[in-house]
Design goal:
Rossmann fold; GMP Synthetase, Chain A, domain 3; alpha/beta
Amino acid sequence: MIKARIPAVDVQNANLADHDKARKEFCWQDAEKVFSWHGGNKMNIIAESLDYWAKDPAKADHPALKFESRDRQTSYSYRQIRDQSARWAHLLARFGFEQGDRLLLFLPPCPEAYFAMAAAARMGVLFCPVFSSSSFYELEIRIENISPRAVLTHPDLVEHIPVSAAAFIEHILLVTGPAPNVFEKETIVEKMADSMPDDFPTVLLPADTPLYLIYTSGSTRPPKGIVHKHSDMTGMLTSARWVLNLKADTVLWTDADPAWVTGTVYGAFAPWLCGVTCVATARHFTAANWYRSLEVLGVSTWYTTPRVLRDLMEAGEDLPTRYDLSALNHICTVGAPLTPELLYWAKQHIGCTPHDNWWMTETGMICIANLPGMDIKPGSIGKSLPGIEAAVIDDAGEPLPALSLGELALREGWPGQMSEIWKEPQRFARYFKNGWFLTGDIAVEDEEGYFYHQGRNDDLLKTGDGKVVGPFEIEQVFCLHPAVAEAAVISKGREPGRGISHLKAYVTLKKGYPASNRLNYEIRAFLKGNLSSELLVRELVFIEQLPKTLSGKLLRRVLRAWELGLPGGDPSSMQD
């Protein structure tokens, strides 16, 4: 673990300035007191967000959503987006939607996706966003699994809906025309929504009513449909205020598609609960597009991924100097480990130090974070939030002492914990042991309570001296070599009789460093000299690009498939 420390820059401006004090005093019951339903069991996330701020004369006309596409920028105030969500709720009701029905959102980024999410929540309909790049197989398994009453989509995407899955759908609703007429059940709803009343009453629901469902891939089984509920709002609001440091005048850009849980929670509901402006864009990623959006939209808080930062870094140091990024005062990252190299690059060339954090689709909210009021230890995902008890546990479910490698676990019961895996109660039950929620991630906790992510549970490696290490630790050392851009390590089994992991490394090189046998040997020797002489990296392969999900998460299972000569799939279409 890296010993460097970056002192907190502006503790006085942090919404949570004293983490240790808050850990002792905070409880979730107190956090609930900001909501009108406190002390009761009937609630709705829209009543506490869009409806609440639309009724406030000082906030009703404040922008709730700014949307940027290639040729235009639109803005919707809290009053306007409240009205739009009511119109869309009337629209869904016209197509037979009732509380408990499911709506599949198969859309590229667009305002209608946000209107439909809010409308579904308003009336107690469970919505499920999926990526517009989803394959036939991905759509088929999701549609057959949840049997949505309707799919809301774009005409250009209709032909991607499998014919076999269409039998599980009553309606295919198109946000615009013309209809492609692939299916008889297609309806253009663009003008229909505009003509609907803007007074749909928000339905108050039991706390455990499902709000949204997002699928996350399993490494060996079909994707899991993770269900979250309306009462998650307590965790959403609290974590957004603390980690994203949202203020009344914040302009928040969470550059994630709503089909990724980060885009649903921190790209829509959390900022709406906090009464701030969230922005979204339909632009395809290029470094110039991202810098331009930061400038033109006046982004003050940016929630992104290490993958985006790496792409910006590779685009060069000169590019960010061409844009006015003076409004930007806070960057957070999630989705993959933030390496010290990326942290220091962003600090120097973008003007903000990225604050890494950790959570999962299953946790529903940020659970471990580098808060604005805390010192940063490069390479660490931070400390657990007040109200979240995190630990590194052994195979028996018992907490390990500091500086021990084990599975990251959270004590059950925080507001955000998934409520079920759709139609798979046995799979859901396997997440829990001795009162702990098992994340499947490997971590180390230091003496000060900072956690360091070390990979997944099935990625543990053993050295010749009996030490167990995570692949991320090895990959970090590889990346300290001046020629290495990125690295990934997998195990090819263990040496007979010794139990030592036989490792294979995949390395991408920085520009200006040609691959050679000599460099191959040098990099492996560098690892042994800087981590352990007992590491058996028998193979090192130079490749152009590591396989990653859309969020930038490394796909070691694809590397393992390649090693076995099996198809690994198209990484560019994999979500998580």
